[in-house]
Amino acid sequence: MVGLAAALVVAASATVAVRQVGSTQACPAIADHPDWSVARRWDEALLDAIRRALPAPTLHARNLFHVSAAIWDAWAVYDSHATGYFVTEKHSVRDSDLAGARNEAISYAAYRVLTSRYIKAMGADQSLSEFDDLMDSLCYPLNVTSTEGDSPSAVGNRIAAAVIAYGLSDGSNQAGGYSDPEYAPVNPPLVVAQSGTTMNDPNRWQPLQLEHMISQNGIPVVNGVQQFVGPHWGGVKPFALPAAGPDRLPLDPGGPPRLGDAATDQAFKDQAVEVIRDSAALDTTAGVTLDISPATRGNNTLGTNDGHGYSLNPSTGQPYAPEVINQGDFTRALAEFWADGPDSETPPGHWNVIANAVSDKLASNLMIGGQGPAVDRLQWDVKLYFALNGAVHDAAIAAWGAKGHYDSVRPISMIRYMGGLHQLPLVAGLVEVVTSETTAPGQRHAVLAGHEGEVAIRAWSPSAGVGWIRAADWVPYQAPTFVTPSFAGYFSGHSTFSRAAAEVLAGFTGSEYFPGGLAEWTVKAGSLKFEPGPSQDVTLEWAKYFDAADQAGVSRLYGGIHISADDFTGRRAGAECGKAALALAQHYFSPEGTQ
Fold first, then answer.
1. Residue 235 pLDDT greater than 70, yes or no
2. Nearest by Cα to 47 from 557, 328, 337, 392
3. Contacts of 220 (CB under 8 A, 6+ apart)
4. Alpha-carbon dihedral angle through residues 577, 582, 588, 593, given to the nearest 10 degrees
5. Rounded to an integer, what distance in angstroms lies between the CA atom of residue 427 and that of residue 353?
6. Which residues are registered as beta bridge partners of 431?
7. Which of 124-138, 295-309, 578-592 has the lowest mean pLDDT?
8. Burial readout 374-390 (b: 16 or more C-beta within 10 A, e: otherwise)
9. Nearest residue to 140 (alpha-carbon basis) of 280, 22, 267
10. CA distance 422 to 415
11. Tens digit of pLDDT for each residue in 448-461?
12. What is the pTM of this model?
């Protein structure tokens, strides 16, 4: 399969001539991507807006779904079998006018929702200009604002008005800036530049305090102390999940392991050690190599890493070619690719990018569910976005519902806290107590002379790569201005978003496999941002959508910001979200069961 590289970095805006609102000047042709449907154009414009805004996966997942549902409703208005989500009215037009009516209604609906949602966001001037330019390129005047009548523009404006009104009462507290005034952390901030940490409760989330705190896309944060993003998000109205109740999460798999709990104390400690082991695996000097191809990796049982790859590519009938790579290059490339750092569309948007690349690959044979008649690209895109973004919206509600409820600790606090109290399990060559013998010149802890009696770990550090450091000084493999996301760990948003999206893609396309049985992304030599590397090109490869989703979850352990309980639980929760969202979306497509 041709790699996803080109598709995954594609930008949305077309090159168009700007004309005055209400002008009778002839509509300019869209020169860029003439094969894109109008739904695809609005999805790409939304992804651009997300890249400019502050990273907030919950908020962006909600916007992706609400815009996708508005687009769906505008399409479904003109289909006798389909059922709208926000608006259920029906209109008829001549067959010759159907495509034009749908494009117009979709555009007004998407435009009005997007301008409402991003008018106060970071980068609003650029985003609103892009939305305006897209309307201009499609020849739809911005001053047509009426919601009265049966014209496609009025239909689109009416749908948008319904979505905007819904968003003010869906539990997100949009009017209050999406904040939760009732939440307060139980632990004082962990000052990253200082050694160790103090915690009132080692099982609860601890905000970080950074001397220079910058968001993932380069926006300075003035006070440098993290604020929990979305602790109330479990109360947001979902798509296919059951709504939360006073004493009920929308999806509750039970809590994470807890320090001091008789049943899970050892798991808590073991999983902290696992994060340290993964941090040590970032070492490029150890001489360890791995085959990272689907011949040996992937094909896991849900919620595990028990897979051993695939014997053959089902599309070609041939074995997957091996790709043997330095382990440190692979683990660092993995952590950075899925980290969704600067200029990112965050995980929900990342899976929209992947979905668009898959759709492009399948463009000559678009059959929903892999069977039945082929559909045109507009119908495919509209239905795929509705199901996919319904799934990631629910994934945000499920994951953040648990994050807010369980308020669980992150690895940086776990490792520093237990290291300071000698509660980390000792593992030869990985977790050890510093002694006068081990700090002698030429010995393994020589750089820690003066810290005899403390716990040392072999892990990554930003100043020296992988080596022996004090447990009290450990930081994840992340940018020093970011370090760890500003919300609780359990359970992983990356894992939940990714598995939910993978379930939709597998069901919607009719195959668990990427087109051609292989998708790939090359991380170029020297392109890493956290430190120099990789030393050679690293091509990440996935046979199935589930393999990519699992790798997204694993990447967060190498990145040092999750434990395996966060990852595995997120995968299982994501599977529930994805399957439920696809099943419900199919009901909206046609209650009678036809596509």
1. yes
2. 392
3. 212, 213, 214
4. -140
5. 42
6. 427, 457
7. 578-592
8. eeebbbbbbbbbbbbbb
9. 22
10. 10
11. 999 999 999 999 99
12. 0.94
